[in-house]
Model the fold of this input.
Amino acid sequence: MRRLHCFLLVLAGLVLTTGTALAGTTLTWWQFWTDPAIKPTIDSMVTRFEQQNPDIDVKLTDLTWANGHEKIVVAFASGTAPDILELGSDWIAQFAANGQLADLSDDISDSADYQGWSMATYEGGVYARPWILGTRVIFMNTDLLAKAGYERTWLPTSLKDLYDAAARIDSLGEDIHGWGSNTAEKHRLYKKFLPFFWSAGARIFDDNGDYCVISSTRSVAALTIYKVFNDLFGYVANQRGIEDAFLEGKIGIIMSGDWLLKRIELEKNPIHFSTTLFPGENGPGKSFLGGEFLAINADSDKKEAALKFIEFVTSPGNQVAFCKANRSANPSSRLAQQDAYFQSNPHLQTFIKQIAYAEHPPVDPDWVYIEDIIERAVEDALFGQRLPGQAMLEAQHEITELMRSE
Amino acid sequence: MKSSRWTASLFASPWLLTFLLFWAFPLLYSFWMGFTDYQLLSRHDPRWVGLDNYRALFSDREFLASLKNTLIFVAGTIPVTTILSLGLALLVNRKFRGRALFRSGYFLPWVTSMVVVALIFTNLYQRGGYVAFLAELVGLEPPVNGFLYDSGTALYAIMAMDVWMALGYYMLIFLAGLKAIPDELYEAAEIAGASPLRQFFSITLPMLRPVAVFILVINSIKSFQVFIEIFVMTMGKFDTSTVVYFIYETGLRTQFKFGYASAAAYLLFMIIAMLSVLQFVLLRRRRSVW
Done:
């Protein structure tokens, strides 16, 4: 009899657990935020979502920036991609063009509350939801500015102003440099060059996107100016090296993202600095715009639950919590931007203002190749392999050839 | 008899299965891929393109530059490594106090992770770094942005690091070769009045020839496959991309062109195979002379 009771108990347990599993939905989510400063916020967000939606479980997988993209590509190719993916803005077109992302065009009723949709829009369809945006602004060492004869509150309003300040700081001493100049660093160099390029009014493609026009006079002028900054005042290193030198007080002016604010905050003896918009010929110039997006796998059969989850993660409240934990400056939600956390910090305000004057690269599945061509042209011009005009003309030929081969 | 054959097969099966699954199949599959336009992110299934990938490689500026850099790397490191490691082996073959310490010291870089060594040298080579300091001491002007950020020095800086790292290993192989030379040969040479230099060229060097050829073969294969140093130190920038780095970039990092990358891999395989065969043929000829 006792044995029978035990058997029935086990059987009941099995039936109950199986029943629960069948009734519930398990979403899989691949994301990149693994830093100890932000991971608890991500975990807590998932827990809160599960509490609010007891029928949905979220299984989280952490990716790294070193190989996350490769893992996603392989997962799509092998049919093992998760339901929800965090994607960098420049990956969306590549996956959307292959039909690997769900079209969310009909599921976005709150689009006006968010910025960054154009980066997720490919051939009329919207394939991801903007989460956290990213741009680059000008950081200036105010001690070096003062030594160079400027007021500490001085801000450049034109590229000429920036040039003069970099020149005066550079002349302060052999170990002091006016400008932080990125070396040939894949996926980074073009992000520093494009603000000069866009601010000069240059374009990669014509208005219809039919022809590559990257060797225009404005484009060559932009590359020449960029090279002048590099050659005359440049401390040439990779992004990390430039930031290290800036934090040591060796560079007067650099272009960087919001992560630098966190680094400065963590310094034992932080430098005195100011932030400002990237200047154009006259007034604000155009900076680089990118960001993190949440997309749904086109093959997922849990689209409704997945949509619910990405709306939850990108909600204004969760964006504020995320930005506070990660010291991020650019939530995609306009409502989140109104939070006191952003309003009370002048540096975060610079980043938020810069978004209005920022541009993103073309949403093109072949951007990875185009980016490579542009970077090579910039590298060659910077390091004396080719003249700026020649580098841009050859880049135009290569991009045109690439467009023809498609 | 039958049962012992089964037992032998059973014991061999783990290796055999691993070999078939993780070596033979990928090798054959990638050979087939080299004749297709297989792209991991493509909208269509792989299509047979014949020799198109191989033809395209010979007009691909990046591949040709990578091949040129690889050849420079091979031609630059192998003679230097071989000569220096032979010199070191001769030195530590002598009896002196602390010989074991020197032997271990020279071998130490080889057992250190390449990534760790590459990171240390990245720091040594940077602007204002130790190597720049040494260069200035001897009156040379180091590159303004550091040795790794200059097309004229980056590849050579990596080659120098590679030589330093490999010296101890090849020294050890030469040392084993030196130990195998019978002392009687040197004794006879001394009685005949041969100078140490004559002994070196007439006894040591000919007797070490098989070891030298072995070193040449394995060092060539290793040098043709140089990757980690490039990945860690320059990411293929400043004229440092090599064929394996090109394969990685094309096939695995950004473009996912598996077909094209496979063709490049097989081209490299053919170059290495031809060179190895040539070296073995030369060795056989020498043996017949001995």
Notes: Chain A has a mean pLDDT of 91. DSSP finds 17 helices and 13 strands in chain A. Chain A touches chain B through 23 residues (CB under 8 Å). The two ends of chain A are 74 Å apart (CA to CA).
